[in-house]
Amino acid sequence: MNARVHQPVHSTQHAASYYAASSNRHLDYPPLRGELRADVCIVGGGFSGLNTAIELAQRGFSVALLEAHKIGWGASGRNGGQLIRGVGHGVEQFEPVIGVEGVRQLKLMGLEAVEIVRRRVEQFAIDCDLTWGYCDLANKPSHLEGFAADKAELEGLGYRHQLRLLQPQQMHEVVGSSRYVGGMIDMGSGHLHPLNLALGEAAAAQSLGVQLFENSTVTRIDYGSEVKVHTAQGIVRAAQLVLGCNAYLGQLNPTLGGKVLPAGSYVIATEPLSAAEAKALIPQNMALCDQRVALDYYRLSADRRLLFGGACHYSGRDPADIAGYMRPKMLKVFPHLKDVRIDYQWGGMIGIGANRLPQIGRLKGQENVYFAQAYSGHGVNATHLAGKLLGEAIAGQAGGGFDLFARVPHMTFPGGRYLRSPLLALGMLWHRLKELA
After folding, report:
1. What would the 3-class secondary structure string for 175-194 be?
2. What is the mean pLDDT of residues 341-355?
3. pTM of whole model > 0.90?
4. What is the rounded CA–CA span in Å between residue 406 and residue 164?
5. How many CA atoms lie within 13 A of 108 on its CB side?
6. Which residues contact 197 (CB under 8 A, 6 or more apart)?
7. What phi and psi values does residue 397 have, to the nearest 5 degrees?
8. N or C end of the chain: which has fewer CB within 10 A?
9. Start-to-end CA span in the chain (Å)
10. Over 80: is that where the pLDDT of 364 sits?
11. Are 186 and 136 a contacting pair, CB within 8 Å?
């Protein structure tokens, strides 16, 4: 079946996707014009910026937020919509820097991050199809052994949600595929409509007094005790600055830009399925994700489409036909969907750091400039944690979480922006070859 192609639109609109087509708010904020003063200027209108703005506004700060396109235009409004516990990958690697207790605190914050989303949705009554239930999928027996260790560790951390290991013969309870050899159910993780969450958070921020500006690309930043942030038509003067652009930072700040690699991730959405078809695919309406380096992640939308995502491109160029690229991956999991129509196809950039831990801290030499980026695939929850930690730090409540993240060093990718992608692609190929061993 051929895909129905949804052409990209001008960046003053949201990137074409199922989420843009099914958004339940249509918000428009003006571009910045003239000069404005604020306690804090935030660059980036995704989850990082929006949640930092909410945290600061709740503490009485005046905040101006600048977004180059539309609120939620980047990864925040285009991702797979999976809300999964945890931040970082293999956080034990940071024990020499932050100690055993520091590693434990990172793991606890990975659980707290999901609860922040839960509380945000409840506090502001955000309609974003938040649904609880997630399952890690084992591609080989060693993955299932790892899940057993994860379960024991989570229980030791006091995790309050149901966890259940699934043996091969039980996998039909969560997925209509014979591809997996086990799994682990986690009822404290789940899925949601990410663009509707971002738009709901924008409305919440505005209700708290945050001034939001769209189509306001930052062209220059003058650093100093007072930061001056320039756009084509205006300037924000602020005592504090937050850079929350992640994979879309570009050359706005080369120091931070060198520590994050934009990588393409892609999603397709089928036509709406019947209730019976949807139940056969994902009987408990969970989010699901496998354990491969080039992972598959998928779930059902509120109108019973299968949203199937994955892959990772480091070339900076999207596949010419995303549906043609992703459909074979979907059919390996669900071969019986060969005649199902693909209604939407889209992609976007996620930010990856060399050590896979979110980068949250202050800019060296500029103590009034804060940043959060490089969520490496855990962005829905980790961005909300970053907003909380940045809000605390700017309010003078730094300590604990913020200082812990800020202590971890982050490597600049070698070779500048033109060699970063090929080098990481080689590294990922090595990891994929290890999977086959």
Report:
1. CCCCCCCEEEEEEEEEECCH
2. 94
3. yes
4. 34
5. 12
6. 47, 117, 121, 126, 128, 130, 380
7. -105, 20
8. C
9. 35
10. yes
11. yes
